[in-house]
Amino acid sequence: MIIRPIADKDLDTLYQIAEESGPGFTSLMPNMDALSQKIAHSIASFERDVHNPGDEHYLFVLEDEATGDILGTSGIEANTGHTQPLYHFRRNTVTHHSRDLDVRKSVETLTRCNHYTGYSEICSLYLRPEFRRANAGKLLSRVRFLFMALHPERFSHKVIAEMRGVSDAAGRSPFWDWLKAHFVDMEFSQATQLIGAGYTDFIDELMPSHPLYTCLMSPEARAVLSQVHNNTRPALQILEAEGFKHKGLIDLFDAGPTVECALAEIRSVRSSSAHSVRVDDYLAGTNTPFGRTNHRHNEPTLIANTETANFRATVTSEVSEYSDTLIISRSLATKLCLENGDLSRILPLNHATSTARNRITATELSYAY
Q: Where are the beta strands (DSSP E) in the chain?
């Protein structure tokens, strides 16, 4: 498996992924023109000389080098709210108090806001069900953090992820059903298509700007506030292991939680390390050709070059460290477009954790956010 930037040749497969992912996956919608523009935007973003984050969008694909199949996608939005507003509902508690009567009542409200303007966003994570295999989901999720660690000037110091909320097999959202009944006479699929196409004017025109009292909502709508789609739960657990936290902001349409973390505090960013590369097929023993002991990585390790437009990353257990030098095979170097003396960055794929909930297998992850 190899991670690379998306290319024009991937358009048909990207369309298939957009269809497979279903309603609610707004970062990829089944529209050929829109997807073609998204690919062109991504290619231009990777090629751009960037010193501060702008409207760049980076879209990666996971490819099986043997068959050429595209297994999944993963993306990063460099600067949210740069070209169109990014709205959420903020969950607040409001307390009404009468001093004379000595009566106090606290109620929860949802207030529309665009708090996350200027943050970077990880998005478009999708692993196709027929290609689920060991380490594929972790590779798709964590490669973005490696890329951000390599090129921090391209991203905000704060990162968010909008998690897909609860909806059924037909794409119906209990939260949206309540909003539709009282405010926006529009199907959930139509609303998500408009968002996916970049049209947000209807949010200001039709959706409530005043606080909504959650006690007045249907029980079904209240029950899904800040909850995630079953297929998204493993992805959320991976992000929680990375240090992401939910701080009360939810999606306008399906009430899924948005989680956030400072870029410098993301576990994969802190745990990754840079190394100069030496290409050598002498990897089988515990000694280097110089007779000195080296350190062999027997656990899966995410390794990437330091390029942008020519970025490549994969998972391997066939690397050794000698001092500050990473010793890799010629075949791996070719796969990653690396030569002697080039810089690479590595990350242990399986973070040690004391909580069972964070021991996620990639085969659990189909599509996420």
A: 2-5, 57-63, 70-77, 88-98, 103-113, 120-127, 158-162, 212-213, 245-250, 257-262, 273-279, 295-297, 301-305, 313-316, 319-322, 325-328, 343-348
